[in-house]
């Protein structure tokens, strides 16, 4: 076996091991995406991210072809009681053995510049990027009818960055 073949085999094994590690330590439950309607330019996704591993991790990014920009966002309430959405560049900590909820009115995945409308029952391909677990690819169902506590289901308003 040539040196190039050995390097390629090692790289392939490392890639598969990383993917297996991510699948073994990170699970996503109760995920759904929504937008405010067929003409909406933005949408959001919500989910429970569980870290079943022995090491703390951090959700540091997200990507999807469903929108021009996809970011991790949260709601911040200012001194006047006004809630604003903003990007969380440092991501969200997911401690070992714990979960972090991305929910309406709180932390969430934000889609800006939708490439197509979010339609009830459709699936949105999303890649979650973790500091240690690497990339986790998921399919998020669109649920425009779900009513969760916490409100802020209309994501058609502007965001501060």
Name a few traits of the molecule.
161 residues; mainly beta; six-stranded antiparallel β-sheet; four-stranded antiparallel β-sheet; 14% helix; globular; disordered C terminus
How does this model look, in words?
This protein is mainly β and 161 residues long. It is built from one helix and ten strands, in the order αββββββββββ. The protein is globular. It starts with a helix and ends in a 20-residue tail after the last strand. The C terminus is likely disordered.
The helix tally amounts to 1
Poorly predicted ranges (pLDDT <50, ≥5 residues)? 7-21, 150-161
* Count of extended strands: 10
Oligomer: single chain
> What gyration radius follows from the Cα positions, in whole Å?
17 Å
Task: Produce the secondary structure layout.
Layout: H1 3-25, E1 26-35, E2 42-51, E3 57-63, E4 67-77, E5 83-87, E6 92-94, E7 99-102, E8 108-114, E9 123-130, E10 134-141
Antiparallel strand pairs: 1-2, 2-7, 2-8, 3-6, 3-9, 4-5, 4-8, 9-10
